[in-house]
Amino acid sequence: MNRRQFLQTTAAAGTAAWTARSASQVSGANDRLRVALIGCGARGTVDARNMRGTPDDFQAVAPDNYHGGNLDPRLKEPRNVEIAALCDVNGSRIAAARKWAPQAAVYNDFRKLLSDRTIDAAIIATPDPWHAQMLILACEAGKDVYLEKPVMYRLTEAKAMREAVRRTKRIVQIGTQHRSADHIAEAARIVQSGKLGEVKFVRVWNYMSWMGGAPVPDGDPPADLDWDAWLGPSPKVPFNRSRLNYRSWMDYTNGIISDFGNHRFDSVHQIMGVEKPLGVSSSAAKTGRQKAGDIFDFQQATYEYPSFILSYEASVYNGHGLGGRTEGMRYYGARGADDRPHGMAFYGTEATLFVDRIGMELYPESHGMAPPVERMHRNEDEPTPLHARYFVDCVRSRKEPSANIEVGVRATAVACMGNVAAWTGRKLKWDDESWQFPGDHEANRFLFREYRKPWDLVKFT
User: Fold this and answer.
1) Which of 55, 58, 65, 104 has an alpha carbon within 20 to 30 A of 387's alpha carbon?
2) Do residues 25 and 144 make contact, with C-beta atoms less than 8 angstroms apart?
3) With the C-alpha atoms ordered 303, 305, 311, 313, is the resulting torsion angle positive or negative?
4) How far apart are CA 301 and CA 313, in angstroms?
């Protein structure tokens, strides 16, 4: 059963088939699902409001993402979802969230929220170094979890995260919304059917020119911000306002390859029908431009898979990307008339398939050796609202999400491997059984970063 069929079936049935929860908790579509949001920033707000799914929520978070302004009919079914609790160590984020969730309980410590037995599920949308501990503790507290990508901050965390999900039998879905896009599933069918011929080379790119603002001096944190808790397991540093834009700092992220490449690595795995690379090499550079933060300005990584080569490119210096567009098509993240800043390209012997979050195009290879493949292009809506709907339905039915913990770990691991290769400056081999770079002490030093006390709430080995 594909995602579209699953959504239609559960909507028609009006109730889930079964549940492992007690009768006092959610068991069907007519029971209210009480969801908590941990991390009330921009992304968490989008996730929570899409999950609640009222017309006002869709208008607030995605007013222009639908063809002709028409909402996908799969999103019109009532959710009966309540955003019952909000948690953030930044008071201004809580204040903003209460404007759209005024009845929600408020917490500044996620551990207290997780002890609330009336909460059924939690959205985790915090800086990356918190993800592993929060997921494990949420599962152990009996909560189902929607975890924003990247799944983990360091490779070693993956084993304990997967084990916690299996042991507790929680429903965990990762925020890799490409898994809920119909055209990505169609791209997988096209490639795996052989329509493109042999695909031996895949390219992925993320280009932008807006990451990071001007540097600012250190100062005192706002009175309503618990700076030590915000840093959590990350290194202790003085407060700097620019660090609240955590995607610009390697203390809290792994750069563009992780934040943006993660989605596309997952889609490459889905489209090509693979799980893991065998090896990786990478080059990366920080140009010294006067912007706050320390993520790489450029990165190129080459991954060897058993049957193809994957080339990844990232840039925060220039936003043009691939270039080349079809008249009338919409492109994800495009800001100008000609740019194509994010995407994937699958190069086959008979045709090439270009894919991004909201569309795809097929170009025949003009070599005259076989009947020509018909050129094709199509657009779809942003899949994030459907991805949120899918999580709600999986919680009620107790079905495994397509974007499960294993799928999410695999995509994030690809990004982490690329950084380790860049940090060591050489080609690395990956051993999936040991989850290490075999025999490479220098590379394996980057498998984990020790958590800062007292925020080492979960022990990893």
Assistant:
1) 104
2) no
3) negative
4) 7
238/126 Cα distance (integer angstroms)? 20
For 154, phi then psi, to 5°, come to -135, 155
Measure the CA–CA gap between 360 and 342, rounded to whole angstroms: 12
**Among the ranges given (117-126, 254-263, 279-288, 327-336), the one the predictor scored with the smallest mean pLDDT:** 327-336
Strands 172-174 and 144-147: parallel
pLDDT at 123: 98
- Residue 19 pLDDT more than 90? no
- Residue spans of alpha helices (H) in 196-315: 227-231, 256-259, 261-272
For residue 133, the model assigns a pLDDT of 98
Of the candidates 96, 78, 40, the residue with the CA atom closest to the CA atom of residue 396: 78
Q: What angle do CA 79, 83, 87 make, to 5 degrees?
A: 155
Nearest by Cα to 194 from 306, 343, 351: 351
Confidence check: pLDDT of 11 > 60: no
Residue with tokens 């507790």: 168
| Percent of the chain as helix, strand, coil, to the nearest 5 | 35, 20, 45
Q: Which residues of 198-229 are buried (b: 16+ CB within 10 A; e: fewer)?
A: ebeebbbbbbbeebbeeeeeeeebeeebebee
pTM comes to 0.91
